[in-house]
Amino acid sequence: MKKHLLVVAVLSLSTVTIFSQSGVWTQKEDMGGEGRYGACGAAIGNKGYIGVGIGNGFLKDFWEYDAIANTWTQKADFSGGLRAFSTAFSIGSKLYVGMGLSWVGTSTQEAKDFWEYDPLQNKWTQKASYPGLGCQGNIGFSIGGKGYVGTGHYSTKVARDFWEYNPLTDTWKRKADFGGTERFGAVGFSIGNKGYVGTGSGYTGNVKDFWEYDPAINKWSQKADFSGVARLNAVAFSIGEKGYVGTGGSGSGSAYKDFWQYDPGLNQWLQQVDFAGAGYDACVSFNIGNKGYVGTGVAEHNFAKDLWSYTPAESVCSIPSNLNASKITNTAARLSWTITDTNVTNTRIAYRASNDSVWIIKQRNYSKEGINIDGLLPNTTYQWKLRSLCRTDSLYSIWVKGIDFKTLPDISNTIFISPNPVTSNTLTLRIKNIRSTNLLLTISDLQGRTFNKQKIIAVNGSINMTIDVLSLPKGTYVLKISSNTLDIQQAKFYKLH
């Protein structure tokens, strides 16, 4: 299995922001039953559990996933009946599920019933009902033999109350209210003896603040805001000393697949590789050992049933250091780095303008040096990717830097293309104040393929000519002008048909 590590840095005039992308997603056996969203789940030992939710209607089936065998087994239906957007967590060898939106007769009702599932007996037992205000879209996690549930939505109210559940006495105890504003659809997870809650939606819309709860002193402390866009119905889990949050939706149709790591020690968010599954909003997550699992959910009106495991990257080869990108000319940059690990066999560069989807790959190997990239567009932010291959066959992809070319001269005042976008079979090219006489004109697409290459002559420091573009397919093109004494100048144009 290959592992991926990405490090991104964006270079501006005054600040440099560095964040990392790491880990690998691996597809597992699809969940049994039908695709769904708004399900709930948790793990006990090496088994994961997912159930209820909404598919072709409200559901009550429950399923067990064996992480070792990569198989699903249907278990006893949830005894609370048809249900969605419930809360689930595990304590010891038992699973606890409750609250949510239930389907009774011909309508929905918000529920506060709470149930314990015993995998050994495959049996559900009703417990003390949740006494809190919110009863759907709550957060839930466990710390030290106790369960914690809070926030949520009830009728027209949004909650911030927070409760501790003791399975030994089957009792609830109110704790300090959640430190942030009222919300539902937030995420919650625990790391060691601390709980973490954030994101969700409240009275003023989606939020991204993030809080730590210490049960020993019953106190909330605000931490660094979640670095992704504000959202609700995301997923979260912890692996070791790190937390992971991602997917979710806007509440108005948009779904997200970005994934982020939270480091409590550094109070810092690092972006990870995007979730690879089919459902992005209202998914289910849990962790088993050193892997997190995410599955089900909804994206573009499709109900998913796929399951994916996430493994954080483990260092096999050292990451290239001293990553740097600097300007050479108005249209060229120098990329450099340092590789000291002898396991690195080769590297290669890929780059793109930040608003383009196509990567331009330099196929040559650059093992321990840098590279000059020319033919860049001014006033454009570029993203760079340095990809290093180790002899261990572990692959690390490292985003190097983005360069802000908006600080460089805009040559659109020198090169004028009309019409742009091109709607006819020809375009008019005008250039003024040219120092050279004999010039080379090339027209290429964003993949670097050349469609037109010709010599042109400037008259009295200017060019005014018509160029036939009938044979060019619809798309985006770069027109370049160069000579022995003139830096490459270029402008982008678009052909609509």
From TrEMBL:
- Give me the segments passing through the membrane: none
Q: Which InterPro entries match?
A: FN3_dom, FN3_sf, Ig-like_fold, Kelch-typ_b-propeller, Secre_tail
Residue intervals of the Fibronectin type-III domain: 319-410
PROSITE patterns in UniProt: FN3 (PS50853)
Q: What are the alphabetically sorted keywords of the record?
A: Kelch repeat, Repeat, Signal
Carries keyword Isomerase? no
* SUPFAM superfamilies for this protein: Fibronectin type III, Kelch motif
Q: Which residues form the signal peptide?
A: 1-20
Keyword Signal tagged? yes
What this protein is called in its record is T9SS type A sorting domain-containing protein
